[in-house]
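tokens incoming
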């Protein structure tokens, strides 16, 4: 195999490129417009990051947090890929052509890239898969969902001060506490407010989870009502936090 081109410089694309180089494959190219410009939010469990390092046989210097941002993993893998001589280009796939593919850089210039084997590591975008299915009427790569996507779920990254983070951690630690009748009444009233003001269609409490991401940032993962306008997302999150506060009988300011 002369030339292998990997589309996508995320964790999977970079990991695949490194493993190919470790196996002795010489010509490995990774293309992605965002290569070496990693800002993607979200985090990976420390165990996953450790498994990546163990599999590669490389020491990866992650930040000291218990959970690693996806961007931290991408940056670490990028450095390892460069060390192994992977050809990483800030270009995007534009189309297949005899003997390879056309790729376009950030200035809009399109060039030919030799390719004997193309690997699609673009995740849910499936850039190469969709192009092959477009060119071949029989759709050789059928796409099927392995599981149902959670509907009406939302992720928000919020910057808070140190006092708010301390209160959030206190709130989380009290999840199993038994509450008195007043707290339960307050909870019912708060839930009814979610139903009347935001259109929450259920009688059960919306799911809400949060994780400290370092540098005074919190990642909130929560359910939202169907068809909730984007202009109400902040008010909805604040209402959820207020309901949690009432249940714990804690009084603390929340600032976005």
């Amino acid at each position: 195999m002369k030339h292998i081109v990997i589309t996508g410089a995320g964790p999977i694309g970079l990991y695949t490129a490194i493993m190919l180089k470790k196996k002795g494959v010489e010509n490995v190219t990774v293309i992605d417009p965002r290569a070496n410009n990693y800002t993607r939010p979200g985090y990976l469990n420390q165990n996953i990051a450790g498994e990546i390092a163990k599999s590669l046989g490389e020491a990866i210097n992650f930040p000291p947090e218990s959970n690693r941002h996806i961007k931290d993993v991408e940056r670490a893998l990028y450095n390892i890929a460069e060390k192994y001589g992977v050809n990483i280009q800030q270009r995007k796939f534009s189309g297949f052509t005899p003997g390879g593919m056309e790729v376009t850089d950030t200035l809009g210039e399109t060039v030919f890239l030799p390719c004997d084997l193309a690997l699609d590591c673009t995740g849910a975008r499936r850039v190469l898969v969709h192009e092959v299915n477009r060119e071949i009427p029989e759709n050789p790569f059928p796409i099927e969902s392995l599981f149902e996507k959670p509907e009406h779920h939302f992720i928000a990254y919020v910057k808070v001060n140190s006092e708010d983070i301390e209160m959030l951690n206190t709130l989380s630690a009290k999840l199993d506490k038994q509450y008195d009748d007043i707290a339960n009444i307050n909870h019912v009233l708060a839930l009814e407010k979610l139903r009347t003001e935001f259109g929450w269609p259920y009688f059960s409490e919306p799911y809400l989870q949060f994780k400290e991401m370092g540098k005074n940032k919190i990642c909130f993962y929560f359910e939202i009502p169907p068809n909730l306008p984007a202009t109400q997302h902040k008010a909805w999150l604040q209402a959820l936090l207020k309901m949690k506060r009432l249940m714990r009988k804690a009084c603390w300011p929340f600032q976005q």
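note: DSSP finds seven helices and twelve strands in the chain.
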